[in-house]
Specification:
By secondary structure, this protein is an alpha+beta fold. Helix content is 32%, strand content 32%. Strands 4-1-3-2-5 form a five-stranded mixed β-sheet.
Length: 120
């Protein structure tokens, strides 16, 4: 093994498509990552999708992707775009990234959920 490279830890960027805003999805991802010692962040995207950057042990990150694919809670996951990232130890925890204020963040999430429900 080369110095500075840990083959047991990975990084991924996930873009999750479907009904994933306004249904408590970010909080569930946050709790799942805390439980599995995964570092990084989750945030809503303007297009109605959710982005997750996750760094941790290969098996734990793989389990997270499988868990997300099973549409936890009230979410309805249609697709997950997965991009590999170089493992980064710059994240010391997992966090929910929110836009502007709580009210703006929640309004955007509910607006995107409404669009998904009426088929826009």
């Amino acid at each position: 093994m080369m110095l500075g490279i840990n083959i047991f830890k990975v990084g991924v960027r996930l873009e999750v498509f479907g009904r994933v805003q306004g249904v408590n999805f970010r909080k569930m991802v946050f709790e799942q990552c805390l439980k599995n010692d995964i570092k990084g962040f989750v945030r809503n995207l303007d297009n109605g999708n959710v982005e997750i950057n996750a760094f941790g042990k290969r098996g734990k990150v793989k389990s997270l992707v499988e868990w997300i694919g099973n549409s936890p809670g009230l979410s309805s996951v249609e697709n997950i775009l997965i991009d590999k990232l170089d493992y980064s130890s710059k994240y010391v925890s997992f966090e929910i990234v929110k836009e502007n204020s709580f009210f703006v963040d929640q309004f955007k999430a509910l607006k995107n959920l409404g669009g998904k429900l009426i088929g826009r």
